[in-house]
Amino acid sequence: MRFFDRAEEIASLREIRSMAKENAQFTVVTGRRRIGKTALVWKAYEDEPILYFFVGRKAEGELCEDYRLEIENKLGVPTVGKAERFAEIFEYLMKLSVEQPMTLFIDEFQEFFRVNKSVYSDMQRIWDMYSPKARMNLIVCGSIYSMMTKIFKDKKEPLYNRQTRFMTVRPFAPAVLKEILSEYNHGYTAEDLLALYSFTGGVAKYVQLLVDAGATTKAKMLHQIIKADSIFLGEGKAILIEEFGKDYGVYFSILSAIARGKTSRSEIESIVGREIGGYLTKLEKEYEVITKKQPLFEKSSTKNVRYTIEDNFFTFWFRFIYKYSYMLEIENYESVKTIVNRDYETFSGLMLERYFKRVLIGEHRYTRIGSWWDRKGENEIDLVAENELEGEAAFFEVKRKAGNIDREVLEEKAAVFLRATGEFNGYSIIYKGLSMEDM
Questions:
Q1: pTM of the model
Q2: Which end of the chain has fewer CB within 10 Å, C or N?
Q3: Mean per-residue pLDDT, 222-244
Q4: Distances from the Cα of 70 to the Cαs of 50, 79, 205, in angstroms?
């Protein structure tokens, strides 16, 4: 699959490189694994050589030898000779950049924790010493989100706030998924588009794996995901066990419950069988795997709370792969596919709501977008959007089939919302149904 999208991020990275020719720049590129961080940096700087340091799980001296060879090959200059500590390499490059502007890209930056934790304090000292005169364009990225966040946003860490830019790479927007399908499956259907969004969430690597395998219809995607040699089957564990560490079992139980529709704390605790307040806080604040949601304009910060897994792939993985792992262990792939197809309408209905929310966000027309439900659970509105600058509000009902949308019921629910919240007085209000026909 060719490279798609990322025009804004590429422009930003090139602007940073230009600025670095006058003043040192330190950019952190983050985002969940498989999102395409490394590919983005390579694409942005494909027009000139850059130094690429990959932090593998090796001894520090071995890494330094790799980096020495990279410097000599890319820059054509002799280095300090054999170095045993990364600090020596980094200081050499910072000094060199005073005379020779350069881009240094350090990938899997969080792995220095395993190699030598003192690397971060050494980098702080060297950066503070040389950056006023250096012309270094330093880019670092890492695949363990929580560790990258800790390195740069924890006040106790030496590199706290040393970065000049913090860039988060997001999944592909719906418009990009449509562009990809248009190129690789000219006759794609709304069901194919919804399936690609539901299964991958727009995560670049997952989209690429499916497209490269020719899996651009819903049926082919499902076959590619659930089969003997599929990397998708172990993907949830591969990513999240490193994030969660030894407590991953409890976190997986919580996420599995949420993926099955148990979204309140009491519902989740009844399944997990223990108090989970601390775990929920970490999942939300530290790992950013779940989101705590409340109805629009809810005044209490603790009432009417629902927890959701925002990442579509993780939602799918816990809902179907993790839950039915016992079937996959005995290679009963067909039964799992049967279950996915059986439950797909309900699952994809939730994904369709997310799809249209992303579309509305991408339009930049509204100043606030969310959902609303009352405390009794009797009235729920899929999407509520406000444009406070224009005094407009919109209420949306989302259904897979247009024929299932009942505008009269939507207006009744909206009336309950208006009475309960007291919001949107004097606003121009519209009511609209959204279905797969509108994708």
A1: 0.92
A2: N
A3: 93
A4: 10, 10, 27
